[in-house]
Amino acid sequence: MHALRFSAPALMLASLPAFAVEVAPGDYSQFPDGTTVGLLYYQHASTGSAHSRGNKVSSDYNLTSDIGMLRLLHTVQISESATLDPQFLLPFGRISGGGEAASLGSASGTGDLILTVPLKVRLSDGGDIFGFSPYLYVPSGSYDHNDPLNLGENRWKVDLQAAWVKFFTEHWALDVVGDGIWYGNNSDYGPGSSRLEQDNAWAAQIMGRYMPDQTLSFGLGFGQTWGGETTVDGVKQDNPTQTTNIRLTTTKFVTPRDQFQIQLGRDLRVENGAEENFRLNLRYARVF
User: SS3 breakdown of the chain: % helix, strand, coil, rounded to 5?
Assistant: First the structure.
């Protein structure tokens, strides 16, 4: 077995919490002025292997996460075609290690609070939309520098996300999303309270969507993340992320105000870090 070229804590910062704010097909749809939506998420994910510079260095690197999230948004119409959706997202849950990652132990608690005000602009009568969302991660989550695993990151983070939604017909649409992520420094990293810095990271998603009717949609999407090499006390860790994933999504309004969503996914290719071999996302949304 080759020695891992990344430390366990550095690996975790690249894999949990999420690298960027993932978008599900249809997330940039506009709501009428004054609409309030409450959402509850549950995600179960597991990894089975770890990679360094594109090579598999462990076939028994098991990280399991069970993460929930509360989200609340309210829509404000600012022009005939544009809306703002001020909102917050609060993750919480548990992460644990097994196999060759068993020494990492486990962690539970809350993740960092996320604040955002997405702008959505309708581009045509056919429903095409441009969206822009600045996400601010507040270092409020559970964090202990002595623990290898944490849900909080103990640093500020900004994710600038842009989206374009193209409707080809009333039944077919394409969602394209891109992110740029900027990281603050963590000056209390690891048992020695080291200084952690991280390069900018980038993410992209492309998702095809089929809608048999106005209450049901099916989506197939691919995502890519890259960049984000970390530096600890001035020493580069040689761990930039380059990961490709796949997502299958079904979304259904069971009543005019209640929506359920299920999404399955996994990583297809990982350059550095743990490879996610299974992901289940569940979401319930209530429109008030």
Answer: 5, 60, 35
Please check whether residue 240 is in contact with residue 222, taking contact to mean a CB–CB distance below 8 angstroms: no
CA angle centred on 195, ends 193 and 201, rounded to 5°: 135
Reading the block at residue 4, the tokens are 């891992």
Q: Which two three-digit tokens encode residue 156?
A: 């500020």
pLDDT digits (tens, 9 = 90+) for 193-208: 999 999 999 999 999 9
Contacts of 92 (CB under 8 A, 6+ apart): 67, 68, 69, 70, 109, 110, 111, 151
CB-based contact 24:264 (threshold 8 Å): no
What is the Cα–Cα distance from 88 to 144, expressed in whole angstroms? 24
In angstroms, the CA 76 to CA 55 distance is 48
In the predicted model, residues of the chain with pLDDT beneath 50 are: 1-18
Cis peptide before 17 (omega within 30 of 0): yes
DSSP alpha helix (H) spans, 149-249: none
pLDDT tens-digit profile of 247-280? 999 999 999 999 999 999 999 999 999 999 999 9
